[in-house]
């Protein structure tokens, strides 16, 4: 039996954010299985990204406060991810005052974790690490959160970030690790944006550069984007050997657009760490699917994996109507998420990703 790192959720997907009752259900369910933190940071919440200077509307703020209270009752750390869009370009006195005021409002929610996220922004600035480390030091000087995490602009070795956001500065990761206070955690997604697997060797290499163990941001089962939103990510976790536990500070998973379906792979990650070399991913999937959806629906889901996860919506053709009729007959919220996906209600466009 292996010891798992601290497990949690980083709600970091593009697309329509979850409903609050679904979010609370996911948090409570996973708390019962050992998940210990939940960071609210959906990309479509503009008040955390391009409109970060503006506080949330009263209704959203109150919902966040209610969710924070529910997390405390469940023994789950509550966090928020703030993306002060390209604030490092002009971090003057006005920007400092605005950032301080914005975080004070978030702190009033009772934050355990505050994540300052620099992902999905231009990064081809020679002194990027120095600028970002300065912002994090400024935030650390006043936030009431007991854990501060940052996401680098280049949060993976994947060259796709250089193509989209400009070439990463030389020694960026090493400089950021050297300049950040050792108490600050750093998100890392792996060798790719959506890592197929993690190895202790890779994670040890990253830890050497960052001068701390990476705080894993695992982009599975997330299914946002024009390509991934055509698939439901339901299969059990693989490529996450229990041996990596000692090489990460924590392990956060970025869930799918479908909250109830996200529970299925999330439960299998617990098995992967607990069972170690004895882990059987299909057996874990079967148990998780039945635990989430019930015996009959769980069995049906296994039979539809090739269609729902592997084929993709655009390749189903006439199967769509047969699948829809099957799943519409089930009242479970996870079944209704399948129906909504089959109806094309979960598709994400490139424009949504560029404007969020």
Structural class: alpha/beta
Can you tell me the CATH topology? Answer: TIM Barrel
Estimated share of beta-strand residues = 5-15%
For the largest beta-sheet, the strand count, sense and barrel status come to:
8 strands, parallel, barrel
The largest sheet has its strands arranged as: 1-2-3-4-5-6-7-8
What's the order of the H and E elements?
A: EHEHEHEHEHHEHEHEHHHHHHH
Give a quick summary of the entry.
This protein is an alpha/beta fold and about 350 residues long.
Which features does this protein show?
44% helix, eight-stranded parallel barrel, TIM Barrel, globular, 11% strand, alpha/beta, 356 residues, 8 strands
Structure description:
With 356 residues, the protein is α/β, with parallel strands linked by helices. It contains 15 helices and eight strands. The protein has helices at residues 20-31, 58-74, 93-107, 128-140, 160-165, 172-179, 200-210, 225-228, 259-275, 281-293, 295-303, 305-311, 319-328, 333-342, 350-355; strands at residues 7-11, 35-40, 77-82, 113-117, 147-151, 185-188, 215-218, 250-253. It has an eight-stranded parallel barrel with strand order 1-2-3-4-5-6-7-8. Helix 1 (20-31) packs parallel to helix 2 (58-74), helix 1 runs parallel beside helix 9 (259-275) and helix 9 crosses helix 10 (281-293). The N and C termini lie far apart (42 Å). The model has no long low-confidence stretch (mean pLDDT 96).
């Amino acid at each position: 039996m292996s010891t798992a790192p601290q497990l949690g959720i980083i709600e970091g997907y593009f697309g329509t954010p979850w409903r609050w009752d679904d979010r609370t259900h996911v948090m409570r369910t996973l708390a019962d299985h050992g998940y210990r933190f939940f960071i609210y940071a959906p990309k479509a919440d503009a008040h955390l990204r391009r409109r970060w200077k503006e506080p949330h509307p009263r209704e959203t703020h109150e919902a966040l406060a209610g969710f924070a209270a529910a997390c405390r009752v469940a023994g789950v750390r509550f966090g928020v991810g703030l993306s002060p869009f390209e604030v490092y370009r002009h971090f003057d006195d006005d920007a400092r005052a605005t950032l301080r005021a914005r975080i004070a409002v978030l702190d009033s929610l009772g934050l355990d974790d505050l994540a300052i996220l620099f992902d999905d922004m231009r990064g081809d600035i020679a002194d990027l690490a120095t600028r970002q480390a300065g912002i994090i030091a400024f935030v650390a000087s006043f936030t009431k959160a007991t854990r501060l995490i940052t996401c680098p602009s280049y949060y993976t070795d994947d060259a796709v970030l250089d193509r989209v956001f400009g070439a990463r500065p030389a020694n960026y990761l090493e400089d950021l690790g050297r300049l950040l206070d050792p108490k600050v955690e750093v998100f890392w997604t792996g060798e790719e944006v959506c890592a197929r697997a993690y190895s202790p060797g890779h994670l040890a290499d990253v830890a050497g550069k960052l001068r701390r163990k990476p705080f894993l941001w695992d982009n599975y089962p997330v299914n946002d984007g024009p390509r991934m939103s055509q698939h439901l990510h339901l299969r059990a976790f693989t490529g996450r050997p229990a041996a990596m536990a000692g090489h990460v500070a924590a392990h956060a998973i970025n869930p799918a657009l479908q909250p109830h379906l996200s529970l299925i792979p999330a439960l299998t990650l617990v098995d992967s760490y607990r069972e170690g070399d004895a882990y059987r991913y299909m057996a874990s999937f079967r148990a998780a699917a039945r635990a989430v959806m019930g015996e009959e629906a769980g069995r049906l889901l296994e039979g539809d994996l090739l269609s729902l996860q592997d084929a993709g919506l655009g390749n189903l053709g006439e199967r769509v109507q047969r699948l829809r009729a099957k799943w519409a007959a089930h009242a479970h919220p996870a079944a209704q998420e399948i129906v909504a996906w089959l109806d094309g209600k979960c598709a994400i466009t490139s424009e949504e990703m560029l404007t969020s």
